[in-house]
Amino acid sequence: MNSNAPSSTPAAAADLRRNSKRPRYSRFTQQELPACKPILTPKWVISAFMLVTIVFVPIGLASLFAARDVVEIVDRYDAECAPLGSRSDRVRYIQSAADKTCNRTLSVPKHMKRPIYVYYQLDNFYQNHRRYVKSRSDEQLRSPSNEDDTTPCKPEDDANGRSIVPCGLVAWSMFNDTYSFFTNNSQQLPLNKRGISWKSDRDHKFGKDVFPKNFQNGTLIGGASLNESIPLSEQEDLIVWMRTAALPTFRKLYGKIEVDLEAGDTINVIMQNNYNTYSFNGKKKLVLSTSSWLGGKNNFIGIAYIAVGGLCFLLALTFTIIYLVKPRRLGDPSYLSWNRNPGGGH
Amino acid sequence: MPFGRHERIRFSKIYSLSCFRPSTKDEHGQIGQKGYSRVVYCNDPENPEALQLRYRGNYVSTTKYTAVNFIPKSLFEQFRRVANIYFLVVACVSFSPLAPFRASSILFPLLVVIGATMAKEGVEDWRRRKQDIKANNRKIHVYRDHSFSQSKWKDLRVGDLVKVYKDEYFPSDLLLLSSSYPDGICYVETMNLDGETNLKLKHAFDFTSSLHDDSSFHHFKAVVKCEDPNEDLYSFVGSLSYNGEQHPLSLQQILLRDSKLRNTEYIYGVVIFTGHDTKVMQNATDPPSKRSKIEKRMDKIIYILFTTLISISFIGSIFFGIRTNRDLNHGSYGRWYLEPTRTTALYDPNRPILAAFLHFLTGLMLYGYLIPISLYVSIEMVKVLQSIFINQDQDMYHEETNRPARARTSNLNEELGQVDTILSDKTGTLTCNSMEFVKCSIGGVPYGRGMTEVEKALAKRKNLGQGDANVGDDSGRYGDPSGSVGKGIKGFNFRDERIMGGEWVNESHSDVIQKFFRVLAICHTAIPDVNKETGVLSYEAESPDEAAFVIAARELGFEFFQRTQTSICLHEIVNGQKVDRSYELLNMIEFSSARKRMSVIIRNAENQLLLLCKGADSVMFERISKESKQPFEEETKNHINKYAEAGLRTLVVAYRVLEEEEYKEWEREFLKAKTSVSVDRDDLVDAAAEKIERNLILLGATAVEDKLQKGVPECIQKLANAGIKMWVLTGDKMETAINIGFACSLLVQGMKQIVITLDSHDITALEKLNDRDAIAKASRESIRKQLMEGRSQLDLAKSSSVLFGLIIDGRSLTFALEKGLESLFLDVAVDCSSVICCRSSPKQKALVTKMVKEGTRKTTLAIGDGANDVGMLQEADIGVGISGAEGMQAVMASDFAIAQFRYLERLLLVHGHWCYRRIAMMICYFFYKNIAFGFTLFWFEAHASFSGQPAYNDWYMSFYNVFFTSLPVIALGVFDQDVSARLCLKYPMLYQEGVQNILFNWPRILGWMFNGLLSSMIIFFICKNSTIHQAFRSDGHVVDYEILGVIMYTCVIWAVNCQMALSINYFTWIQHFFIWGSIFFWYIFLIIYGYINPEWSTTAYRVFIDACAPTPFYWMTTLLVVVATLLPYFLYRSFQTRFQPMYHDEIQRRRSEGGESGGESEVPDRVKERIDLLGERMKHSHREM
């Protein structure tokens, strides 16, 4: 590489080095480090596309299979569980003190293996609104000594002059629909509500000695109330709710049914339709779902994998054809791109 | 050296355009008046008047900052950049509730960036300070309390008496009183001032030179009145009153700070100017800052991004306003969970416009990631590192002079890759500027048998024209063993048996020969220097020409060996005997570029008064005696023309016998002129000199060769192949210039020459009439006509591939540069592949450079080595100085310094190309990565009703520009190479990528931005859709805000780093380390951050370890997103290399196919073809311009 460098004997070089300003030779300073210089040859392009195909299509298929095995029952109940009428009628209904019990019947299409996760799904609910997300006090949730640390919680920071625990809009607007599940023969299906929140949240973000105080005591009542004798770390519904969702459509774990359900079973759900989504045209759904290694019934990722893999296969094919049909002539001057746009960009 | 080289001497003041203003008579300032008011009481510190004056001390500080003002001043410098101001405002606002992030996470990256830049400034300034401390604490002997004692430089005061010993630096500007020599002379080396290595002679007044020992200063008192401190190194006006008499002072008595005492045991002097008042410090100034075209365009891109930032914030605000307004509609709530009834201005459904406006401010902060905060500092760091590589390049190190290449500024590295036109000086740049005496014409007889390179080139041309391949005298000067005497003597390459070895006495006109060589031996300013150990005599001469003459005289038996202030001694060989002859030196009329001649008046042993004179033919022939017809004037003129054709520099040698009476009268006048203390002293001296330098008797002419530097023709050829146009601006005669042009392959066979000159009969006829206006008018017309002809010639040849060369002389250039003709001239000149401007003055050089720069709007590079090139170097976009024999002025004014012209090839084709490519890629990539990241925030906003909630944790974001993506891009900027240095040189056309700016044109920049936008969309939408509401783990947990942030951010980090890996095709371990290291570091960061107390880590708490890492979903999404993100670019590049490969793609392909490793045989043809084709196309594109 270094063809221009004058050659000198080692002894002379050593002699020179003493007062010479000659830059010292190293592959680094001479910018001659050993380097790998891949370029986009036809072989490489086609191989890269093929590699993507080979990796992606199986992953995609596996994901699709996994998603196929997941059994999911989704039941939208916000419309049926409220009297027919205009939006304002429904809002009035949901804000009234009337009994809001609602019965739903779900049928199990396929065998559902336990555990069966019970979710509620809200729609058009902006848990990611900045005003909402910020309106909480992590300090207060962790330790009773920070009880009055409610500045970020405005406007739900205090009620009647005393701090609210847990404060803030998030806690205040907690989901308060309840579900209980019965089999055909009116036997209640046990619902496990333990372990539905992240362990790290239970252990470190919500204090074992922090108890709800002065909660839902203000002029405006938001959502659920809390049992003031249970510490926050055990109020798993709250913990789940406080872990705000990323997008306006979200599911949250409600509990787990730890028995298998057979295909054809019907399940009666007795629910309290308390939560107001009518104001903002939000939907409410109840979801029962099994899970696979990939999680829920998620077809998107499998399809996306197969799509990308398939696309790459097509591209590999296209390139192969191009290279076969029209091989490049070597050194064709017309390939020099700046000839086609003389003068460059100014 | 006492001060760093960063102290740039303000030679521009002296040499560039400003020095051409005519000296006005009204500046004739008398001492004591304004501008000349300084009074120095020598050796009289107790004098009350002296105490009143309060001149500054000798303490100097060259630092930009002091300890006190460092913080405010450097901060101020930082915030002069628009982008930094923006970030500062954002940081200030971040303490208000408007901010979408925590203030600390905004402040942190700003502090890192500002801190890094300030640290750089601080380190640079600290180095300066250390040098200052060293200089201020040097020791000097000062006369205090009747004896000389050691003191520090900084304690020196005006009026102090000092004693300086041999090889010491002068601590301030001194008035020389006496020296160890009885006649009060001393030798001074001024290398630190002007870079000239030759010694300069200074002499003290006779009446002070008797003060020889320390005790004699006991009663010494004197008053100096002189000019105020100024930066003019070459003049001094003042007077000394001593013992009641007034004596005019000149530069001869002034010793300047930072020059060094040489060959003299000691001197005594009086301090006149101290510290910052000294001439050298007055000269110190910041270099003119030049900015590269890429950086200027980068600013525009920043503005585009600002516009984008403002518009997306605006869009967001509108949506936010509408959405907010809907939340409280006629008393009914919309999103009750936001409690729209109990709200602040930030979110008040009753005042949606105010809320939207405040949200707009939030948006400006939130999307601030579109503006790459670390761009400027990264680029600065990269450029410094690039400069180090330039400085460290072994292939640009010159063994003989022990000089590596030096990038004096790092601002312009990438500009080196875009040079369209090179404007070059000739002497010392293309040639060695080591003169060799090769020929002479004495008494009409030509001597000297050597053949110059130009002559060889000429012979070659002629032979080729006749179809004869056999080149004449091939023996060459080097391979000829018979050149016994001339062999091995530097500056002497003369062979002629007729006059060498004492044979000249046998020539018919031996008396003329004797006089001729005596003039050469006596009429000069050289100083002999005998090496005590070897006894070898060498000369310190002001110019290499002069040294060549003295050496030639010595070799022919007229050995100059001693100079005193009043005499010159020669060893002359008379009849084979060495005889000492001493000549009394009466006067010396020095050489100046205006006079173009020098004379000495001597009295020889026969008591004859002689004026010996040598000078340029243009001024000498008119001073040759008309009365007594010179017998060989015509022959000499012919010889001179021949020498000029052979590319030699000629001087005419003449003498005159003076009458005692005439001389006495003249001397009075001359002394008066010389001792006059006024600004127009030089004019008076010139006028006096004019009176005696007439009626000369011609002796002959000398011809010295300035050899072409090694590798110049090849280098010029390469640069021409790279499509770079070359202009040579030289002071030579037209014939010399054309021949040199051929010798260095600037002009080639088959090239059509367009010659523009005023040497036509009409003009010369007019000149005789001496009607200036008429001459000017006729000249203008003539030049217009010639240019029009050239234009039509060029138009005719448009279709063919004939190359043109334009040659224009200095006088024509004066007119061609006038307003009316300038555009026509430029129009013709840019279509010619090479241009030679002969007989051009330094001012014209600078003007031509300016014209080319502004006329073509392309990058110009000026290269030169001498003080006369300084204007040109500073005017051009890039100034390259050759650190050669003519001193350091050019280097001081340059942006890059190289030792030899041929290194320009490597500097441009290799380093220029690489740096251009690196910076262009780096900036494009910077914008890519920030757009890719910034827009994911925007897409997320669209799903969070534009409330201003960022998608990611605050600290992920603030580390984005600082840690996760910064190092790979710096590695790209420092190390990337498209092809190796060898291939850069082998395929010079590659350089056109920079000239035509195809790596940084708007389509490419916008393409990268679009790619960023596309990446952000792919990242966000795939992440969003694949995670939507389903469980993402087998234990049923769903994706929430925290997890989506981590997944998306992981995808962003992977995508931008892999994009980098994909877009470079040069991986050393450094690239691998930084790219994969950055990705790895993200995970490390996530783990560590996740383990910090949740109060600090908030949404990042254990999110990776507990939630993401264990699930295959997270890794699968990453893989899917990364591949999908890279796919568009990969596809584009695959198609591009297939259908529209860029030049470097072609070369890379060739290399990888093995065409490069083995034979050189098959490539050149093909490449040559391509070059021809391209050359033609380029010509067309220029015309279209």
Give the topology.
The complex is a heterodimer of chains A (346) and B (1185).
Chain A: H1 10-17, H2 42-69, E1 72-76, H3 87-95, E2 101-107, E3 116-122, H4 130-134, H5 138-142, E4 158-159, E5 162-163, H6 169-172, E6 178-182, E7 191-192, H7 199-205, H8 236-242, E8 250-257, E9 266-272, E10 284-289, H9 299-325
Antiparallel strand pairs in A: 1-10, 2-9, 3-8, 3-10, 4-5, 6-9, 7-8
Chain B: E1 8-9, H1 11-15, E2 38-42, H2 48-53, H3 70-78, H4 82-93, H5 103-136, E3 139-144, E4 147-152, E5 161-165, E6 173-179, E7 185-189, H6 191-194, E8 199-203, E9 222-226, E10 238-242, E11 245-249, E12 254-255, E13 260-262, E14 266-273, H7 279-283, E15 284-285, H8 293-326, E16 328-329, E17 332-333, H9 352-366, H10 375-391, E18 406-407, E19 419-425, E20 431-442, E21 445-447, H11 453-465, H12 510-522, E22 527-530, E23 537-540, H13 544-555, E24 558-563, E25 567-574, E26 577-589, E27 597-603, E28 609-615, H14 617-620, H15 633-645, E29 648-658, H16 660-675, H17 681-692, E30 697-708, H18 712-721, E31 725-729, H19 734-743, E32 752-756, H20 761-769, H21 772-796, E33 804-808, H22 810-816, H23 819-831, E34 834-837, H24 842-856, E35 859-864, H25 870-875, E36 878-882, H26 889-892, E37 896-898, H27 903-942, H28 954-964, H29 966-975, H30 981-986, H31 992-995, H32 1002-1027, H33 1041-1063, H34 1069-1091, H35 1094-1097, H36 1103-1108, H37 1112-1139, H38 1143-1152, H39 1163-1184
Parallel strand pairs in B: 19-31, 19-35, 31-34, 32-33, 33-34, 35-36, 36-37
Antiparallel strand pairs in B: 1-15, 2-9, 3-4, 3-5, 5-14, 6-12, 6-14, 7-8, 7-13, 9-10, 10-11, 16-17, 18-37, 20-21, 20-30, 22-23, 24-25, 25-26, 26-27, 27-28, 28-29, 29-30
Helix pairs in contact in B: 3-5, 4-5, 5-28, 8-9, 8-27, 10-27, 10-29, 11-19, 12-13, 15-19, 16-17, 18-27, 20-21, 21-23, 23-24, 27-29, 27-32, 27-33, 29-34, 32-33, 32-37, 33-34, 33-37
